[in-house]
Amino acid sequence: MGRGGGAVSPGYWQEERDDAPPAVADDVIDLVFTVRGRTLPADHAWALSEAIEALLPWFPDEPRAGLHLVHAAASGNGWQSPEDDDEGVLYLARRTRLVLRIPRERIDDARVLEGVTLDVAGHSLEVGTAREHLLSPLTTLYARHVIAPEGDEEAFLEDAARELAGLGIECKRMICGRTRHFRGPRGRVFTRSLMLDGLDFDASQQLQRSGLGPGRHHGFGLFVPHKAVK
User: What is the value of pTM for the model shown?
Assistant: First the structure.
């Protein structure tokens, strides 16, 4: 550096890179409807999907479509959510939403639900306007319900790892959690929750688009962002 300062060798001065963040997939989105209603059955997987399919006959045959089941708060004002009770009901809050995961080209088709009142096993659900949500850029994902055989959770994780590998996805950490039974037309369906941590960005996007396991049109195997495990 010469007298008076200010001269810097270019070999020791590197400008900060302004890399653009990865582009979030937009070929599949969540279509989020406002709803009005008092209650839904706690176990509404088949009843809600059937009410939707009556108006969207293409829905069960669309491989990239899925239904997010409605979830109530765990408790409030002394009331405990009966989500694990087949015979219970969920009390809907003002912020409750109906969410469909669908390919972008199906958005207009799905908006047929706007302004319709669905009969969900005798419970009325008024569907309002919808807005589009892109998938999450986060790389820790969580599925509340993945269809699984009853029994050893280690076997469930091994099956999940094999299916992920078939999709070309490597997951560094998997944790399964709560179990749940649902009533289906052919008997009870057993599920486990599943959290995946340590995915890379592309794997997270692919898994949100594809889901894991069967039954996505009934609310199973869909992933949402989750707080990272650290």
Answer: 0.84
